[in-house]
Structure formats: structure tokens, C-alpha cells
């Protein structure tokens, strides 16, 4: 017997769960795996944040049901961050909502804003949650191709009029996962203008807002004048402070959308543990030097990997954001073919580009989540075992 809804039946297996199954099998067989697949930072959470978590956990009143919308300290800390980083003013009571990791809010904003049959505009390739949440809400997604020729930005004017008239939400994500593409505020200006014209709210996912290099500063969509009329921005502590397991993020911007999402959430979850929120507030409010320290490490790894890729004939210009490298597969391979050859022959795990959408075909994603020595080792194994002929 198979008890599941049609909605669940149409969801393809979670990509990383599949890869993990294969990985566990190979580990059991004694293969020395180098996992450049999943986007979970290997660097530790800074000590001052953990100390704060421990301290707050000792107060019994912090272990009661938390506030539905997030504790005041956390929401205020997010507002402080927006002012400090972007000179954007936020009202912590109406324009900030705490999330149980940004993934939670990204998934729940879809049924908050769309009805069955409505369209959601999603970048292609992109974080799979945008698409899967749409299917779970009985919506339809429209893939906006993100191609190298357009610097991995969607061509908004290529979206058919019929789709636009039925679209109730557009996702954007910069610095981008998996493309590592970055934009300047001018792009957000265009997106906001477009969305105003077509009456489509924007949800910008800024999970990698602070993972940037070479002096590049990632803009917030809320820097655009009037953006709060129609946009929200998701943010996360996960990648900025290596807090993926804490499950704490936020959404900021348009009041009505935030109110609607809080109605959805108050009937679904009861918020994140208060000590986690307080530790996150502390992370946002205290010394930020850990961010530069982490980015310096990613930058070194990126340089190592880009040099290594050159030696197998794969040329990528250095990305200015995220800890990913989005690289074209060597000549003669498909994404899936290359990734599974590499995995089987070398024990190096990569992510096939098409897993993020059809326009990801021809690419693979490298996550810079292991130390330099392992990156050298990964490239050497690929070079030796695959005998890739440089065109
Ligand atoms: C990691 C990631 C998230 C989820 O972050 P959490 O706050 O840990 O849920 C959201 N969007 C993108 C693009 C990500 O890569």
C-alpha cells in the first residue's frame, strides 16, 4: 500500500538524499570520499555565538514556547544589520519575521501568496525549494533561464504575457546558488520596475549576502526605492556564521506579505527556540570579523580550485560571491555523466548542473566546503583517473 497524496507523488527524490545514499554505500566500501557536493560549510560556528547559546539555554523561561513572530532581540538585530549593511530602515515589528531557517520561509511563502494553478517565476538553475514548494502548493513554476550569455540573469522581457498574467510570485537569488552569479543594485531596480508593472511580488533569497570577495558588496533588493511596496528578502545566519544546524533565518520587507506569511506560520509552526534566536541576535550584533576570516578561507580555496580546473581544461572566471564554483563540464560529457564518472572513478562528489533546473545542463557545481589539500587531491584524482583530454 502506498499512502501519499498526488502532491507528494509528483515530487522527485531530494537530490542530496540520493547522492548521500550513494556516498554512504561508497564509504562502506572503503572509498576515501571528497564531498564537494552539499553546501554546508565545514568551518566551525564562532565560539562567542555558541557560548551565548549555552548561556541563554540555562534560563528556564527561554525554554517555553517562543513568540510566533520571533523574539524582539532577534528582530531588532536584523533591523540593525539592514541599517548597518544597506542603510535600509526596517520596523522590527512589522517588517521583520523570524524563520526556522530561511528554507522554511521560502517554502511557506509560496502557499501564502499563490492559489492552485497560479504561476511562480523561478530562476533556472536555482535552489530546488522554489520549484518543489510550488508543486506542493498545487501551483505551476515557470523556469526563467539563467544563461552565461546574460551573466546568469533572467531575461524578464522574454517571459510570455500569458504566464505573467497568471504569476503571483517571482523568486530571485543573488549571490546565486548554484551559479555564484552576482548583480549590482541596477539589476534590482529593473526587477522592481518590472514587477510593479506586472503586479508580481518578488521574493529575493539573499542566503549568500555576506559571502563575497574582492571588495564586492552584495546589494539588498530593499535598497531600491519603493521596493518595500512589492518585495521581501530572505536572509539566513546559516552561511554567514556557519550556523546551518541552528535553523535560524528571517524575511524582511513588505508588511502585507510578512503579515500573511506570519498567519500561515502561526498555524504551522511555533517559532524557533528562543536561545537560538538570542544567539543569532548576538551574532548579528557583535564583532563581525569572523565573516572576513571565513571569506578569506573561501577565497583561497576558490583560487586553488580554479587553478586546478584550468589543468583539466575547465575555465571559469572567479566568482564574486557564494562558496560555489559553477563550471562547464569537459567536452564530450553531460552533467550527469561527468558527475557520476567522477564519483565512481575518484570518490569526488560534485553536483550535476541539471539538478538545479534544465538550464543547468552542461554544468557542474563545486562547493568549496573542504580544506585546500583536499581540493588539490580532488583535482589530481580527476586528472589522473579521467584522463581528460584538453581540447
Ligand atoms: C542554504 C540556502 C538556503 C537555506 O538556508 P537556511 O537558512 O539554512 O534554511 C536558502 N537559499 C539558498 C539559495 C541556499 O543555498
TrEMBL record:
MF term (GO), any: transaminase activity
InterPro entries: Aminotransferase_I/II_large (IPR004839), LL-DAP_aminotransferase (IPR050881), NHTrfase_class1_PyrdxlP-BS (IPR004838), PyrdxlP-dep_Trfase (IPR015424), PyrdxlP-dep_Trfase_major (IPR015421), PyrdxlP-dep_Trfase_small (IPR015422)
Primary enzyme class: transferase
Listed transmembrane segments: none
Alphabetic keyword roster: Aminotransferase, Transferase
Keyword Methyltransferase: no
Gene3D superfamilies cross-referenced by the UniProt entry: Aspartate Aminotransferase, domain 1, Type I PLP-dependent aspartate aminotransferase-like (Major domain)
Cofactor(s) annotated in UniProt: pyridoxal 5'-phosphate
EC number: 2.6.1.-
UniProt key word Transferase: yes
Residues annotated as domain Aminotransferase class I/classII large: 32-382
Domain of life: Bacteria
Annotated family: Belongs to the class-I pyridoxal-phosphate-dependent aminotransferase family.
PANTHER family from the UniProt entry: AMINO ACID AMINOTRANSFERASE (PTHR42832), L-GLUTAMINE--4-(METHYLSULFANYL)-2-OXOBUTANOATE AMINOTRANSFERASE (PTHR42832:SF3)
NCBIfam families: PRK09276.1
Protein name: Aminotransferase
Annotated source species: Cytobacillus oceanisediminis
Amino acid at each position: 500500500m502506498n499512502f501519499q497524496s498526488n502532491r507528494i507523488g509528483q515530487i522527485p527524490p531530494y537530490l542530496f538524499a540520493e547522492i548521500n545514499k550513494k556516498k554512504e554505500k561508497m564509504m562502506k566500501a572503503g572509498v576515501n570520499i571528497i564531498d564537494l557536493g552539499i553546501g554546508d560549510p565545514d568551518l566551525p560556528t564562532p565560539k562567542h555565538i555558541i557560548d551565548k547559546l549555552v548561556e541563554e539555554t540555562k534560563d528556564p523561561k527561554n525554554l517555553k514556547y517562543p513568540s510566533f513572530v520571533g523574539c524582539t532581540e532577534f528582530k531588532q538585530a536584523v533591523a540593525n544589520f539592514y541599517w548597518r549593511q544597506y542603510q535600509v530602515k526596517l520596523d522590527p515589528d512589522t517588517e521583520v519575521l523570524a524563520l526556522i531557517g530561511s528554507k522554511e520561509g521560502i517554502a511557506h511563502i509560496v502557499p501564502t501568496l499563490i492559489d492552485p494553478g497560479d504561476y511562480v517565476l523561478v530562476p533556472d538553475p536555482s535552489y530546488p525549494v522554489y520549484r518543489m514548494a510550488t508543486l506542493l502548493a498545487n501551483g505551476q513554476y515557470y523556469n526563467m533561464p539563467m544563461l552565461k550569455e546574460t551573466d546568469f540573469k533572467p531575461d524578464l522581457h522574454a517571459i510570455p504575457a500569458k504566464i505573467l498574467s497568471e504569476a503571483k510570485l517571482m523568486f530571485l537569488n543573488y549571490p546565486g546558488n548554484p551559479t555564484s552569479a552576482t548583480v549590482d543594485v541596477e539589476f534590482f531596480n529593473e526587477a522592481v520596475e518590472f514587477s510593479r508593472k506586472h503586479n508580481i511580488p518578488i521574493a529575493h533569497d539573499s542566503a549568500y549576502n555576506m559571502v563575497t570577495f574582492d571588495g564586492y558588496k552584495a546589494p539588498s533588493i530593499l535598497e531600491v526605492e519603493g521596493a518595500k511596496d512589492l518585495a521581501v528578502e530572505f536572509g539566513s545566519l546559516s552561511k554567514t556564521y556557519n550556523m546551518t544546524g541552528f535553523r535560524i533565518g528571517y524575511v524582511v520587507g513588505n508588511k502585507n506579505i510578512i503579515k500573511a506569511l506570519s498567519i500561515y506560520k502561526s498555524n504551522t509552526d511555533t517559532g524557533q527556540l528562543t536561545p537560538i534566536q538570542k544567539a543569532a541576535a548576538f551574532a548579528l550584533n557583535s564583532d563581525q570579523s569572523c565573516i572576513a576570516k571565513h571569506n578569506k578561507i573561501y577565497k583561497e580555496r576558490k583560487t586553488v580550485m580554479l587553478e586546478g580546473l584550468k589543468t583539466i581544461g575547465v575555465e571559469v572566471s572567479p566568482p564574486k560571491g557564494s562558496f560555489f564554483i559553477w563550471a562547464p563540464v569537459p567536452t564530450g560529457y553531460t552533467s550527469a555523466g561527468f558527475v557520476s564518472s567522477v564519483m565512481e572513478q575518484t570518490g569526488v562528489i560534485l553536483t550535476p548542473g541539471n539538478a538545479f533546473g534544465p538550464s543547468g545542463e552542461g554544468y557542474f557545481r563545486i562547493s568549496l566546503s573542504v580544506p585546500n589539500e583536499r581540493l588539490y587531491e580532488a583535482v589530481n584524482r580527476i586528472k589522473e583517473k579521467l584522463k581528460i583530454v584538453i581540447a
